[in-house]
Amino acid sequence: MNLPPPDLLPVVLVVDDEARSREAMRRTLDEEFHILEASQAEEARALMERHEVAVILCDQRMPGVSGVEFLKEARQRWPEAVRIIVSGYTDSEDIITGLNEAGIHQYVLKPWVPDALLATVRAAAETRTLQRSLQRLDVDLRTATPVLRQRRSEALARARAVFDFERIERAPGSPLDGVCAMAERLARYDLPVLVLGESGTGKELLARAMHYASPRAAQPFVTENCAAIADTLLESELFGHKRGAFTGAYDDHPGLFQRAHGGTIFLDEIGETSPAFQVKLLRVLQEGEVRPVGSATPVPVDVRVIAATHRDLEAEVRAGRFRQDLYYRVAGVTLSVPPLRERLGDIAPIAQRLLHDVGLELGRTALRFADDVAPVLLGYPWPGNIRELRNEIRRAAALSDEDIVPARLFSLKVLHGQAGVSAASGNGHANGVALPASGTLAQRLEAMEAMLLREVMLRLRWNKTHAARELGLSRVGLRAKLLRFGLEEK
Ligand SMILES: Nc1ncnc2c1ncn2[C@@H]1O[C@H](COP(=O)(O)OP(=O)(O)OP(=O)(O)O)[C@@H](O)[C@H]1O
Q1: Nearest residue CA, atom 9 of ligand 1?
Q2: How much is the pTM?
Q3: Which of 85, 335, 425, 427 could be 411's S-S partner, Cβ–Cβ 3.0 to 4.6 Å?
Q4: Residue 384: which domain range?
Q5: 201 lines ligand 1 (CB under 6 A)
């Protein structure tokens, strides 16, 4: 066994007036402990003053002060040292009465057995080590708590600033003003809120702003997209699971409801959930407790629910696809976020804000739109709403070599003002070409056909099989067109 050097061994003080007893103890313990010896209380006090003693091993019968008396004193003066009394049967009465007052850890009966004594002293030394770590933790905690509290409140202030209703970009007099005013009022209360709106309209942004304006702001805001995962997974994600509940469940796993305890959970696309899942969710909302998959024990949760859907949930209820009782649970109040095409005025301020954000992402803070951008953005119906607008702006900004981002760098579908063109224009990077501004219809169509082909080929990395499939052409037909337009991989 590797032993630490003697000066690192825990110190044990043996107090006994009989030299032979002290010697026997030293022999038993000195491989693992640094032994100090005292033949009476006065000597023991002097040693205690000079050394950091982990364990006191004290005989009960000593001339003058008894063992228990000395240990009582030791408890007052050196409370950290763990105290053990050594005694014969006849002393047990005295010891039992003094046991509590002296705070004695263990009591060793004479004649003692070496292995048992060693085990007792080891346990006492371990107790001392544990006490020390606890004390250190306590100190750490006391000094750290104000720092943690400070950091927490700073983080909360930052989150509040970012997710403030004011930061939901919109034009003065926007239809969103009313929605935001209502959401801000509702934020204070625990009423369940259902947010309706097409994909990408900012439903989650609104839910976040409500959370950070609510009394729950210092607790977590947790989101789940109910459409993104299968039913069984959704159940385990939201409600948690016990270890072994299913193949691959190696550990107990707290669900999102538990993680959101005290805060808010945002259930996006709630209209996509199955009837079986809806029953389980209803139970959680009614009873205020979740039952992790594979567990019989429910866990109480205090969570505010904000749900969202792009569907007409009332129609879903009428069609029997969404449970009416669950609908009433989640739709305490309904807020509708209008699509971007119904608030054209918002497009310019939102686009400016998004360009600013993209500039930060790209490290190009001087980015600005050219004058021809606004009419283009206004002429497109934005079926993917603000998320689509953000993607378009990101793409145009990335393609622009200049700080001024021109309209021609937006994708064809946007330039055309037609959502339907998207299938052909996609997310390609080839669209650095302006639309044909003159010529006959046939000439312009031909120019556009060439642009489309070029965009598709670049996007698909000149894979003719994939391009032909996407465009509904044969490979031979595609090759003929590429030849006619002089398009080839550079
Ligand atoms: N008014 C706004 N001002 C600035 N950014 C916005 C605004 N509305 C939405 N966004 C941004 O648009 C993106 C999409 O918004 P969000 O995720 O909230 O939409 P959603 O309706 O929840 O979409 P989905 O239902 O598809 O999840 C986000 O990056 C969001 O920050």
Answers
A1: 202
A2: 0.62
A3: 425
A4: 343-484
A5: yes
